[in-house]
């Protein structure tokens, strides 16, 4: 476990999965990241790589060979190396090896960097193609934020505000797979309540920022991810008592689950990224506590 601290924040990051595991506001004296209680969900903010979501039958075809891979890929379960640390940043690295090639044949280097600046955490991703051929991959974030995050509030006091670009579509799921997409009219704000997660995650494109706010407080969590192709919003739903877990995930993605009619060929996946030999893919998003 490694820690960064400034006058406003403390964050902690695990070597396993290079996973952000704590966001504590010293100013507000509050924990904002889910604690990983396995009763609801045993993770905090996993890195999704080299897939986002689920594959049909948990398998995919790469260069005519079938590979098995569980939901959201393997990077979240591998130990990363801490390769650089200074007062305000931590940088982790995972390189392809004999174990990763059991699931995914490509050679790659994956770098995850955390930077704190006042009340902002910036998370930077870099994927380097060290293979002789083009590689294909998805990558995504999955931070879970404590909701409610203020005392004497309930989920009904909270809402999501959106900043969007162009025309927004919503991607509908049948089970864990994308079945169709529909135009989302005037996506500005959504009131949080358990029923919106009855059919698993809400998934949109062309969204640049989502804020979690409360009608009873001036505190908010802002997640900014300019020009990401997709974002998921999720909390596990309990149909027996019509409740959700005490957290909500805001998940910026470069990738998405398999479509219902997928032919399993990896390079044909919706939202997959293609990277030439010796080239680098870079993206970043930020979390700000206001």
Automatic annotation (TrEMBL):
GO terms for biological process: carbohydrate metabolic process. InterPro entries: Aldose_1/G6P_1-epimerase, Gal_mutarotase_sf_dom, GH-type_carb-bd, LacX. Pfam families: Aldose_epim. One of its GO terms (molecular function) is carbohydrate binding. It comes from the Bacteria. This is Aldose epimerase.
């Amino acid at each position: 476990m490694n820690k960064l601290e400034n006058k406003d924040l403390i964050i902690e990051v695990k070597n396993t999965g290079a996973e952000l595991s704590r966001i504590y506001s010293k100013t507000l004296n509050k924990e904002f990241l889910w604690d990983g209680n396995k009763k609801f969900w045993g993770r905090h903010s996993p890195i999704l790589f080299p897939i986002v979501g689920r594959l049909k039958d948990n398998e995919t075809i790469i260069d005519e060979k079938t590979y098995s891979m569980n939901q959201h890929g393997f990077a979240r379960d591998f130990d990363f190396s801490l390769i650089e640390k200074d007062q305000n940043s931590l940088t982790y690295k995972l390189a392809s090896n004999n174990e990763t090639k059991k699931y995914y044949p490509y050679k790659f280097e994956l770098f995850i960097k955390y930077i704190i600046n006042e009340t902002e955490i910036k998370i930077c991703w870099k994927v380097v193609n060290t293979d002789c051929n083009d590689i294909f991959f998805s990558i995504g974030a999955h931070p879970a934020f404590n909701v409610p995050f203020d005392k004497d509030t309930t989920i009904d006091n909270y809402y999501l505000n959106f900043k969007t670009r162009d025309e927004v579509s919503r991607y509908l799921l049948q089970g864990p797979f994308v079945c169709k997409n529909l135009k989302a009219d005037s996506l500005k704000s959504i009131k949080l309540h358990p029923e919106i997660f009855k059919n698993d995650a809400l998934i949109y494109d062309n969204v640049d920022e989502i804020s979690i706010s409360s009608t009873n407080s001036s505190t908010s969590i802002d997640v900014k991810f300019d020009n990401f192709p997709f974002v998921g919003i999720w909390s596990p739903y309990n149909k027996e008592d019509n409740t959700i877990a005490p957290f909500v995930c805001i998940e910026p993605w470069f990738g998405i689950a398999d479509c219902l009619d997928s032919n399993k060929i990896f390079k044909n996946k919706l939202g997959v990224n293609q990277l030439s030999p010796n080239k680098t893919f870079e993206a970043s998003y930020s979390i700000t506590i206001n």
